[in-house]
């Protein structure tokens, strides 16, 4: 099999028919040896029935049903684990990743000896709020992470089997696949494209989910939050020593210190700082706890292969 296309879907009954028509058309322009794996992440609408109906026309369309909603990154992981192609494409199910771009990424990967090629957005035709949120996330992630990740790229990509095996070997439970993809290295390239706005249905990557993904990305690939705790703690100790020294001098020369307001302010300030730091450390501890539980990243309910 030449290429596998992995697409996670969740409550996409308004989009799934158009998604499949456009994806099949785009893939069959360069190969007839393919599979399209749609990973249903616990949909409650007619998404599954529409996919099964389409399968009657084209059995190269496969459906991997998860037992519940495990989340976008886990659904991708499930699909990647079942992919059998020599090349593997990752694509979101809202048609904001244009299927027509897969051919260019596939050709660059196959003909130019790249292991991973991903779509780089030159323009985003989305709401101002969403564009600003995503730009802010990429800016913060690139500044804080320990990897040199390019901006304006997401899950949309094509990789070969070697890269896929390396990606699947990363078994952490708190997953940010674009970060893991950069982490594994190999020869990586870009294909530019314009990202359109969603044509139907509601966006599944809400601000809350984007915020959660940003937290996972930063805490998984950066020690900056812990360093902030350390440096601020050191600054607090230095400030305390300075104030203590000034107080001792005032006491020795007989200058009375008012005391109450500054004391209360210091207590409230450092109390708040300690609570923030406890929360940051708690985020790391929670992620360690999740890893030690060693629970499944996903559970397959049924696979229509």
Question: Would you write up a description of this structure?
Answer:
This protein starts with a strand and ends with a strand. Helices cover 50% and strands 18% of the residues. It is of the alpha/beta class. It folds into 2 domains: 3-222 and 296-304, Spore Coat Polysaccharide Biosynthesis Protein SpsA, Chain A, CATH 3.90.550; 224-293.
Concise synopsis of the structure shown:
This protein has 305 residues and is of the alpha/beta class. It is 50% helix and 18% strand. The chain folds into two domains: 3-222 and 296-304, Spore Coat Polysaccharide Biosynthesis Protein SpsA, Chain A, CATH 3.90.550; 224-293.
Order of helices and strands: EHEHEHEHEHEHHEHHHE
Mean pLDDT: 77
Strand order of the largest sheet: 7-5-6-4-1-2-3-8
Q: What is the CATH C level class of the largest domain, in words?
A: Alpha Beta
Describe the sheet with the most strands.
8 strands, mixed
List the helices and strands and how they pair.
Elements: E1 3-9, H1 16-27, E2 34-40, H2 47-55, E3 61-66, H3 72-82, E4 87-90, H4 102-111, E5 116-124, H5 128-144, E6 153-160, H6 161-168, H7 177-183, E7 188-195, H8 207-221, H9 224-253, H10 260-293, E8 300-304
Parallel strand pairs: 1-2, 1-4, 2-3, 5-7
Antiparallel strand pairs: 3-8, 4-6, 5-6
Helix pairs in contact: 5-8, 9-10
């Amino acid at each position: 099999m030449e290429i596998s296309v992995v697409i996670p879907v969740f409550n996409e009954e308004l989009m799934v028919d158009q998604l499949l028509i456009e994806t099949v058309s785009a893939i069959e322009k360069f190969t007839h040896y393919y599979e399209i794996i749609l990973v249903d992440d616990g949909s409650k609408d007619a998404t599954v029935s529409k996919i099964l109906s389409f399968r009657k026309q084209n059995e190269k369309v496969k459906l991997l049903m998860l037992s519940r909603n495990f989340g976008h990154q886990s659904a991708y992981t499930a699909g990647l684990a079942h992919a059998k192609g020599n090349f593997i494409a990752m694509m979101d199910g809202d048609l904001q990743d244009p299927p027509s771009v897969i051919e260019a990424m596939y050709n660059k990967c196959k003909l130019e000896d790249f292991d991973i090629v991903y779509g780089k957005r030159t323009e985003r035709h989305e709401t101002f709020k969403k564009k600003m949120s995503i730009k802010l996330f990429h800016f913060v992630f690139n500044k804080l992470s320990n990897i040199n990740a390019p901006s304006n790229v997401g899950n949309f990509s094509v990789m070969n089997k070697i890269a896929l095996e390396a990606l699947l070997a990363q078994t952490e439970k708190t997953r940010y696949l674009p970060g893991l993809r950069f982490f594994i290295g190999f020869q990586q390239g870009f294909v530019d494209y314009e990202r359109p706005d969603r044509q139907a249905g509601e966006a599944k990557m809400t601000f809350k989910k984007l915020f959660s993904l940003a937290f996972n990305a930063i805490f998984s690939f950066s020690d900056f939050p812990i360093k902030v705790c350390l440096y601020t703690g050191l600054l607090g100790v230095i400030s305390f020593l300075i104030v203590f020294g000034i107080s001792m001098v005032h006491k020795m020369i007989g200058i009375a210190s008012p005391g109450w307001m500054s004391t209360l302010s210091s207590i409230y300030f450092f109390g708040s700082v300690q609570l923030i730091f406890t929360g940051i450390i708690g985020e790391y501890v929670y992620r360690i706890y999740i890893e030690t539980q060693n629970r499944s990243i996903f559970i397959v309910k049924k696979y229509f292969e």
